[in-house]
Each structure stands twice: as C-alpha cells, then as structure tokens.
C-alpha cells in the first residue's frame, strides 16, 4: 500500500489543502492521511485546540475517498518535526511505501527544516506545484532536486524511499488565515471548507 501523508496545522483545514492532496491521492492510487501537527515548531500555536483540529480533519476525511485523519503527531509529546515523524511512521507501517506531500513554497525552504538531510530516509516526496506558478529554489534545494527527482510516475512509484516527484495540482487561493479573518469579520467563508467542517466551526464558535 502507498500511504500519502499530508501534514499541517489545519487551523482550519480547507479545500486549499484538500483538493491538491486529493489529486495526488488519485494519481498514486494511495491512502491519504491528513495529519494535524502537534506543536508546530515554526509558527505560533493555533487558534483551535488539538482535539478540535483533529475533529475537523476527521470530518474533512469523510468528504474524500480513500482518506483518513491521522492522530500520530498529536499523540507525541514533542514538537512536530517531519524527519522524526516519517521515521516513526515507517516503523509503524514497515511494509508500506510512504509518500510525503509538500507544497512547492514549503519545499523551497527545505534547507531550514529540522534534520533536513534525513527527510528522505524513509519516504518519497511529492512536491505539489501550482500551474503557472514560479517558485525559486536556492542552490541547496536545487541540488537535492537534481539528485532525487524522478519525472516518470511509474518509476517514482517503484522507489522504496528517497525520490521526489513534481506533481502539477490545481491551485485554490485560500489560506487558513483568510478564513479566520473572514469569520472574525462576519464575511462569507463556508464555501472554503467542507460543509461538515463549516458546521463544526459554527457549532464550536471557533475563531470568533
């Protein structure tokens, strides 16, 4: 089985996360795991609690095929570092191939990630690219890409770990910050998230 991992603060989770990930899931014929971060080390603490963010991920997962919410990082008493999480997930699923999903903007800062040299030890990576969007990679990231990129999908799928595939995905111009701001300003926002997530946000009175 191929397990595609999409991590994030998901505060809240929205179609900007879900649509590109869904496209990659269909491309790989994978099981998609939506994994909320526990203590994101590179940003402020989120507005919703860990339990609320997990619940929103669970609700979002029901809107997609072959998708589940993953509570692994929320159960760890440590900051969310991708290299460590992927190593632990590989121990959990030793027979399965792991694919970590990453946006091109985040991939451009790869050299600043914790233990970034070990990010490819246990998983392949799909970098989700927005059509007509130009993201500039520095020399370090460009070298990593040159060494690891595989352009043929069938060859990429056969790799046990360490490969990178650039996947064009549909860009949806949404951010969690914009959603939180719209809620605070009593503007329309519900169409940016699955209906079940919108209902939960209103029920819990989040981001007000």
Would you kindly provide a written description of the structure presented here, covering whatever features stand out?
The chain has 208 residues and is an alpha/beta fold. 37% of the residues lie in helices and 16% in strands. It has one domain: 3-Layer(aba) Sandwich (Rossmann fold). Helix 2 packs antiparallel against helix 8 (195-204). The longest helix has 14 residues, at 15-28. The protein is globular, with a radius of gyration of 17 Å. The N and C termini lie far apart (41 Å). The mean pLDDT is 94. Pathway: Cofactor biosynthesis; NAD(+) biosynthesis; deamido-NAD(+) from nicotinate D-ribonucleotide: step 1/1. Catalyzes the reversible adenylation of nicotinate mononucleotide (NaMN) to nicotinic acid adenine dinucleotide (NaAD). Its EC number is 2.7.7.18. One of its GO terms (molecular function) is ATP binding.
Brief summary:
The protein has 208 residues and is α/β, with parallel strands linked by helices. The chain has helices at 15-28, 50-61, 82-92, 104-107, 139-148, 153-158, 176-184, 195-204, and strands at 2-8, 31-36, 67-69, 97-103, 124-129, 164-168.
Ordered list of secondary-structure elements with their pairings:
Blueprint: E1 2-8, H1 15-28, E2 31-36, H2 50-61, E3 67-69, H3 82-92, E4 97-103, H4 104-107, E5 124-129, H5 139-148, H6 153-158, E6 164-168, H7 176-184, H8 195-204
Parallel strand pairs: 1-2, 1-4, 2-3, 4-5, 5-6
Helix pairs in contact: 2-8
Pfam families: CTP_transf_like
Family: Belongs to the NadD family.
Organism: Pseudidiomarina maritima
């Amino acid at each position: 089985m191929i397990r595609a991992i999409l991590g994030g603060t998901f505060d809240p989770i929205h179609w900007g996360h879900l649509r590109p990930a869904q496209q990659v899931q269909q491309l790989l014929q994978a099981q998609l795991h939506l994994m909320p971060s526990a203590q994101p080390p590179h940003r402020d603490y989120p507005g919703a609690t860990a339990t609320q963010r997990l619940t929103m991920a669970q609700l979002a997962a029901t809107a997609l095929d072959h998708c589940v919410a993953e509570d692994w990082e929320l159960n760890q008493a440590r900051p969310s570092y991708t290299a460590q999480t992927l190593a632990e997930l590989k121990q959990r699923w030793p027979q399965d191939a792991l694919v970590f999903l990453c946006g091109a903007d985040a991939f451009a800062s790869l050299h600043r990630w914790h233990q970034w040299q070990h990010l490819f030890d246990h998983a392949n990576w799909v970098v989700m690219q927005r059509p007509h969007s130009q993201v500039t990679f520095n020399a370090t990231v460009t070298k990593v890409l040159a060494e690891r990129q595989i352009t043929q999908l069938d060859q990429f799928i056969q790799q046990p770990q360490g490969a990178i595939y650039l996947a064009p995905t549909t860009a949806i111009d949404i951010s969690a910050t914009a959603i939180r701001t719209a809620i605070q300003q009593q503007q329309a926002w519900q169409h940016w998230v699955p209906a079940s997530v919108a209902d939960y946000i209103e029920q819990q009175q989040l981001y007000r």
